[in-house]
């Protein structure tokens, strides 16, 4: 049996691929702000905007590294004795995207940020569910965006692939449900599939296993098929169920 089990009502979702050759169009952000944003914030804002209209919405933003690349550039400037831009500093925090998004929409709803290593997306889904459960009549927007860390930090275990995904939790408008489970070491190890060279593999139930949580989740959302991710001592599992018309 899983240690944690919860269901998310999905009204809309959107994603931005890690392999995209250009930054997305975020024309809803004022030009003076837009040109100062990092690629990470732009892709996060893009998928967030795809999922919500003008209605107020609580936001849970998740990223393993956040604006680490911007922060690293700031540290390099300090090391070289160069001045640091106040704007660059203010946009280097993990939740920078949520502030920009709220200001652009004139939305004062609560926003939070989550970072939990390679399991960041999984715990962000749990946080979004917990917030929605406390007030089901108010939608929650989960936004996950990440990019690999600067090479200066060396090899990082279970490194992210980059890209972004957003999910709007709203039971009234839901088209389906995302079922999430977390199983700790012991049971997880007993059912763990064999991975070949880090590539996608399948377990005995025919479920696809992926190198990152974001790849597994997006596979589930796109195909409606179950997907799993195996981390250090835990297995995360996602499955999709359409809602009856």
Structure description:
- It is a single chain.
- The protein is α/β, with parallel strands linked by helices.
- It has a single domain (about 5-240), classed as Peroxisomal Thiolase, Chain A, domain 1 (3-Layer(aba) Sandwich).
- Helix content is about 30%, strand content about 25%.
- It is built from 8 helices and 10 strands.
- It has helices at about 30-35, 40-50, 70-80, 85-90, 95-105, 120-135, 185-190, 215-225; strands at about 5-15, 60, 110-115, 140-145, 165-170, 175-185, 200, 210, 225-230, 235-240.
- Strands 3-2-4-5-1-6-10-9-8-7 form a 10-stranded mixed sheet, with helices on both faces.
- Strand 9 and strand 10 (about 235-240) form a beta hairpin.
- Helix 2 packs across helix 5 (about 95-105).
- The longest helix is centred in the middle third of the chain and has 15 residues, at about 120-135.
- The radius of gyration is 18 Å and the shape is globular.
- It starts with a strand and ends with a strand.
Report a brief summary of the structure.
The chain has helices at residues 31-34, 39-51, 68-79, 86-90, 96-105, 120-134, 187-191, 213-223; strands at residues 4-16, 58-62, 111-114, 140-146, 163-169, 176-184, 201-202, 208-209, 227-231, 234-242.
């Amino acid at each position: 049996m899983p240690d944690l089990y919860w269901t998310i009502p999905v009204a809309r979702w959107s994603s931005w691929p890690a392999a995209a050759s250009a930054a997305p169009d975020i024309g809803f952000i004022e030009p003076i702000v837009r040109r100062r944003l990092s690629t990470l914030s732009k892709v996060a804002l893009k998928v967030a905007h795809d999922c919500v209209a003008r209605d107020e919405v609580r936001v849970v933003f998740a990223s393993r590294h956040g604006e680490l690349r911007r922060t690293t550039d700031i540290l390099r400037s300090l090391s070289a004795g160069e001045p640091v831009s106040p704007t660059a500093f203010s946009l280097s925090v993990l939740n920078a995207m949520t502030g920009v998004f709220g200001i652009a929409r004139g939305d004062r709803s609560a926003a939070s940020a989550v970072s939990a290593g390679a399991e960041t997306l999984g715990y962000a889904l749990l946080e979004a569910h917990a917030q929605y459960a406390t007030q089901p009549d108010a939608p929650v927007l989960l936004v996950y965006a990440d990019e690999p860390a600067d090479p200066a930090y060396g090899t990082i275990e279970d490194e992210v692939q980059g890209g972004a995904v957003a999910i709007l939790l709203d039971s009234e408008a839901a088209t389906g449900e995302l079922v999430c489970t977390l199983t700790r070491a012991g049971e997880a190890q007993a059912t763990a599939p064999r991975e070949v060279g880090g590539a996608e593999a399948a377990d005995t139930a025919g479920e696809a296993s992926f190198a990152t949580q974001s790849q597994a989740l997006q596979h589930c959302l796109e195909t409606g098929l179950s997907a799993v991710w195996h981390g250090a001592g835990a297995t995360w599992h996602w499955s999709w169920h359409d809602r009856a018309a």
